Automatic annotation (TrEMBL):
Family: Belongs to the HesA/MoeB/ThiF family.
Name of the featured protein: HesA/MoeB/ThiF family protein
InterPro entries assigned: ThiF/MoeB/HesA, ThiF_NAD_FAD-bd, Ubiquitin-activating_enz
Pfam family, one: ThiF
Residue span(s) of domain THIF-type NAD/FAD binding fold: 9-245
Domain of life: Bacteria
The organism of origin for this protein: Aquabacterium lacunae
GO terms under cellular component: cytosol
Lineage of the organism: Bacteria, Pseudomonadati, Pseudomonadota, Betaproteobacteria, Burkholderiales
Length: 251
């Protein structure tokens, strides 16, 4: 680290649990973020400001006026532009040291097969059940940690998965791919703006702890639920399923 980096990240370095080696680990890290909307916006900004050295951002959409109520990585003058391009400009202005790779496309198996092996961690910031399962399969297939979140109306959820840890469950253990719930999206159900911010920031925190090697074992197999009406959180535990279609013993 150079002197400018020591100053930029000095408030991390003042933490008893932190060190220059941990900060350098962030600088050397690559995070693949799928989704540059309500969750991706705050998550990306905190990953960039905290010093994650490389961010690949995948999103197929353009900035719309309705996004600006909550998607803080975008600005009014970005309406009509690809979200990944808008996010690129904001993140580079926030921290010019960060390498940002915008990918204006919808995530599919082929795209994730190309990008997931290069990343140290996957971040799911989407609102689609199908995409979550695509990312979960990529996580298990390539042995990459996955931090997954969702938010709609007043409520949010967060979970951390790490296929490198023996007996750790995957997303399909919790939500089997053949049991898709009714589609719930902000565009039709509405969303409280700070709810996505709160969950997106929690998602960034989980990602940074994972990259720094500070994730407690208790964080795995745990679904955190956020109530935007009260600001309270609760959690439920879940276990790896031997018959899981993705990570089960037969696969």
């Amino acid at each position: 680290m150079n002197d400018a980096q020591r100053l930029r990240y000095s408030r991390h370095l003042l933490l008893d649990e932190w060190s220059e080696d941990l900060q350098q680990r962030l600088i050397d890290s690559h995070v693949l973020v799928v989704g540059a909307g309500g969750l991706g916006a705050p998550a990306l900004m905190y990953l960039a400001s905290a010093g994650v050295g490389r961010l690949t951002v995948i999103d197929p959409d353009e900035v719309d006026l309705t996004n600006l109520q909550r998607q803080i990585v975008h600005r009014t003058d970005g309406i009509g532009r690809p979200k990944v391009a808008s996010a690129y400009d904001t993140l580079r202005a926030l921290n010019p040291e960060v390498q940002v790779q915008p990918v204006h496309a919808r995530a599919d198996d082929a795209l994730l097969a190309a990008w997931a092996p290069q990343a140290d961690l996957l971040l799911d910031c989407t609102d689609r059940f199908e995409t979550r399962h695509l990312l979960n399969r990529a996580s298990v297939r390539h042995g990459k940690p996955l931090v997954l979140a969702s938010a709609v109306r007043w409520d949010g959820q967060l979970a951390v998965f790490d296929p490198r840890v023996p007996d750790s469950p995957c997303y399909a253990c919790l939500f089997p791919p053949d049991e898709a719930p009714p589609e719930v999206r902000c565009a039709t159900m509405g969303v409280f703006a700070p709810a996505v911010g709160q969950v997106g920031v929690m998602q960034a925190g989980a990602a940074l702890r994972q990259l720094a090697g500070l994730t407690p074992a208790s964080a795995l197999g745990r679904l955190v639920m956020v109530d935007g009406r009260t600001g309270e959180t609760s959690a439920v535990r879940f276990k790896r399923q031997p018959g899981c279609a993705v990570c089960g013993s037969a696969h």
